[in-house]
Design a protein that fits this description.
The structure holds 2 protein chains of 2 kinds. Chain A is mainly beta. Chain A has strands at residues 3-7, 10-12, 18-25, 33-39, 45-51, 57-59, 67-72, 77-82, 91-99, 111-115. The chains are: A mainly beta, B mainly beta.
């Protein structure tokens, strides 16, 4: 069974840092485009970042310079390092397979990040 | 960035009704469009990909059509378990962008 499991969310103060993990089973993270998507409370979906199979990375303007997407091939795990966190980063963060057949068919259950003093 | 304009933002329909949601892209995205269903507290679930392809295992009452900039998502006979929010998403370009969502309720 193909599965993504996020972890690492929690409560953090503004300006703080957090690292999210997305452990994959049934698919190889390094062979896929993998994205992070977030959803603020009561709001819609916002794409955050992607890492391509070749290693290229891209970010939404709202997180560029603060967040870093990466992967550990030996652990088959995707990461999102979040620095300089702001109140508006409060959201449920999902990892998902970006390009596949079909695309965007595999999502994790999400991990909640709350930025508050 | 490609803007995805989804409408309506909410609708109320009776069981058995046909429900239609539209999504308009701000530029040509060919058929690089997905439709998702999201229930409260759950991750989005892919229903339709490449604008009109039904994901395996998804009931056939769901369908999608369109290409270029204008897309339509249809539930042919609304069922109580279809109560959810539906999102369109383009994956032609970065940044990936989503429509604002349509909350579907039972009348």
């Amino acid at each position: 069974e193909v599965q993504l499991v996020e972890s690492g969310g929690g409560l953090v103060q503004p300006g703080g840092s957090l690292r999210l993990s997305c452990a994959a089973s049934g698919l190889t993270v390094s062979s896929n485009y993998m994205s992070w998507v977030r959803q603020a409370p009561g709001k819609g979906l916002e794409w955050v970042s992607v890492i391509y199979s070749g290693g290229s990375t891209y970010y939404a303007d709202s997180v560029k310079g603060r967040f870093i997407i990466s992967r550990d091939n030996s652990k088959n795990t995707l990461y999102l390092q979040m620095n300089s966190l702001r109140n508006e980063d409060t959201a449920v963060y999902y990892c998902a397979r970006d390009h596949g057949r079909p695309p965007w068919d595999v999502w994790g259950k999400g991990t909640t990040v709350t930025v508050s003093s | 960035d490609i803007q995805m304009t989804q409408s309506p933002s909410s609708l109320s329909a009776s069981v058995g009704d046909r429900v239609t949601i539209t999504c308009q892209a701000s530029q040509d995205i060919s058929n690089y469009l997905n439709w998702f269903q999201q229930k409260p507290g759950k991750a989005p679930k892919l229903l339709i990909y490449d604008a009109s392809n039904l994901k395996t295992g998804v009931p056939s009452r769901f369908s999608g059509s369109g290409s270029g900039t204008d897309f339509t998502f249809t539930i042919n006979s609304l069922q109580p378990e279809d109560i959810a929010t539906y999102f369109c998403q383009q994956f032609d370009n970065l940044p990936r962008t989503f429509g604002g969502g349509t909350k579907v309720e039972i009348k």
